[in-house]
Amino acid sequence: MSAQLPDVSVTDLAPTLGPLEWVGMQGIDIPVTIDEAGYHRELHARADVQVDLPAPQVKGIHMSRLYRLLDSWGEGHHISPPHVRELLSSMIESHHDCDSRSARLQLDFDLLVRRPALVTEGLSGWKSYPVNVNASLVEGAFSLSVEATIGYSSTCPCSAALSRQLVEESFLKAFTNQSAVEPAIVAQWLRANASIATPHSQRSEARVSVLIDQQAANLGLLSLINSVENALGTPVQTAVKRADEQAFAALNGQNLMFVEDAARRIRAALSNYRAPRVHVRHLESLHPHDAAAWSAPHRHEADHGK
Asked: Tell me, what's a Pfam family for it (predicted)?
């Protein structure tokens, strides 16, 4: 084909003049590599890439340029803030003829991590953590944030107190006429009756987002997730045997929490991160609706990027 192919995005003017805030593509399949804290894995991600279009007369941007930049960017490097900024700079440079001065990238993927059982030696299973990466380079100002969703179990403190009261009343009723009871008799009674009332608990989720320093070596995803799970104390489990299930029940009993408690625990655990945001949601087993709480950075933290 010797004839030059037409390119109406260059030769034609926009029929309606006006700048556009963002133009690009969404939902591009791409492999990405995460390499941090002993974790190295290539994952399937979906990417959104856009540049601004300030030139009012330009009919359209060059979508293929963005695609090719993203395609080559995903090979041979793990994701890091400098690596992301390099891509955004290349996207802007590739659209100098559109007067583009800003670019942004969003990545969505599941971080797949093998987690050991609580007690059973050698037992483990895979756990998936949805991750969202948002980065922008707007007229020279670079920003990168990560958001992770972490599953955990929550047991209601109010329900636990009410359950304990019923157990107490049942115990007093059973032994009200006895001035002394042998420990073995008490133990036997507890084995048969301690669950006469049980507190409600439910699968819950925490969504946390933080800003990442632009010179960081990686995204710090595992460190962030581990901080949240350690603060809550009851991360959901993968492979379990009876001993692990019993250990999980003990963790729930020792970590009673309302959504308010969970949000505050996580916020305290993320005090060394920049601009932490927290959203917790308890998928209630008592109600047909959920309980939720949010925590956002204080104004001075957001302004100074604490």
From this structure: GCHY-1
pLDDT reported for residue 305: 43
Domains of the chain: 16-156+200-304 (3.10.270.10), 160-193 (no CATH)
Per-chain mean pLDDT for the chain = 93
Gap between the Cα atoms of 107 and 43, Å rounded: 11
CB contact at 8 A, 171 and 192: no
Say if residues 221 and 36 touch (Cβ distance below 8 Å). Answer: yes
What pLDDT digit, counting tens, does each position of 17-33 carry? 899 999 999 999 999 99
What's the CA gap between 73 and 86, in Å, rounded? 9
Residue-wise pLDDT for 211-232, tens only, equals 999 999 999 999 999 999 999 9
Check residue 161 and give its pLDDT. 96
If you average pLDDT over residues 2-29, what whole number do you get?
A: 82
